Fold this protein.
Amino acid sequence: MDQLQRLTAGDLVHLAPELTLVISAIVLSLLDLFMPRSFNRTVLGWLALVSVGISAVFVLGDISALNRIDDATGLVMPTEPVSLLGGSWRVDDYANLFKLLFLGGTALILIMSIGNVKEDEIPHKGEFYYLFLPATIGAMVMASSGDLITLFVGLELLSITSYVLVGMRKKSFSSNEAAFKYVVMGGISSAVILYGMSFLYGMSGSTNLAEINRALSSNYAAFEPLIYVSFFLLLAGFGFKIAAAPFHMWAPDVYQGSPTPVTAYLAVVSKAAGFAITFRVLYSVFGLGGLISQQIHTDAFTATMVVAAAAMIFGNFIALRQKNMKRLLAYSGIANAGYLLVPIGTQFGMVHFSNFSEMFFYLIAYLFMNIGAIAVYMIVSDSSRSEDISAFAGLYYRAPATAVAMVVLILSLAGLPVTGGFFGKLYIMLGTLQLQHYWLAAIMIGTSVISFYYYFSIIRQMFLRSGEVEAEIKSSPTAQITVWICVAATLLTGFFPHVVLRYIETIFSVPIDLFIS
């Protein structure tokens, strides 16, 4: 217990990214409290963005410290991760890469929000800006957790803050309904996760992931039924957090009722946080990180592949019927959760040791194409006062540049060359084929082809349908900046995917950064 309580002043430097956001959230909340009501709260949005940037600088510093360049060979030499609080907190490149993803997504969403938050919809603009910070802290805690307790604390911090953000449009019935559904379903999923964790604790007598794996590995014959129970409970709970079928029922209503920037946050940052804990827990506890029986190992990851296939099939087929843009993006997110689960389910193999880099590359591509598409949707819906896909009608004739940007983002969502989304799906599919999971690769290809229909229906509206030409498209500079940053990143990851993939594989080491010892 003493070991858990020791945290020296020197250790705080490793917590600098999170502490930056904690201090910023407190300071901004106090500023909002004492500011006159007439004062423009947009400044709080800019200050929140600055704090996110400072936090990202600290994360980059951690990456640099953990990956020193050998003077003689010029090669990157990974060092052992920093472990704090008795292994409850880890500073490794697995966590650092996810933290950069969370911070990058939060920064883009803040930029998109600044100047686009309307007081008639969201009466507390200041809160809207700085509530993204504790949510991101929760995501970062999840990525660095080496213990079930810290993992659950981060999960609940992200979840509770998300519930508040979803209900920020207090005068909107759809927002209130979405927040209520999200709270109820989120509470149930948290209970399911906690129940699964309780079985792990009961079998091992510990909440540390490494100790749990050692205990299960040495007694798997006695605990086999309970290992299966705990796995399926955790898979169901994590499936809710990443909105994978059949645990997805909350997503369409919550996406539709949320303020548009919050929809983007749930679709990208919250989903990525779910994948951070899913990958870490499934591999550190049930995967090849230990010596659990091969049968349990095979069954666990087969079940993960089945969930991935269900998400791809269900998400894409139901998306075909959607007319509301947010609901379409919700079902698209469900399908993409399936694509992202494929590298987790296909596990490691003699010829396939890069499934983390495949998943993470697609997460990067997904971040930019999804936030960019939602930013374009926000511009169009604010101008036309409509949330339907038909609001895009004639967009090319009203705002040609915005329409072209949307085409690039849609091509990436559909997985067509030359975009980040194309190479993301390609790398995942090639890894699946290497392990001879041909049925899963066939589902990936088939559902991707099906997705062309509903993605291209948006392009059809923009170029082949006549909209109200007099309905001028008005957009703020921050919304346009967000769109074009996402378009540029989508194209760069499409033209130079090897650069991004090489960077991930250079600094990430499976035995050092993923498995907890």
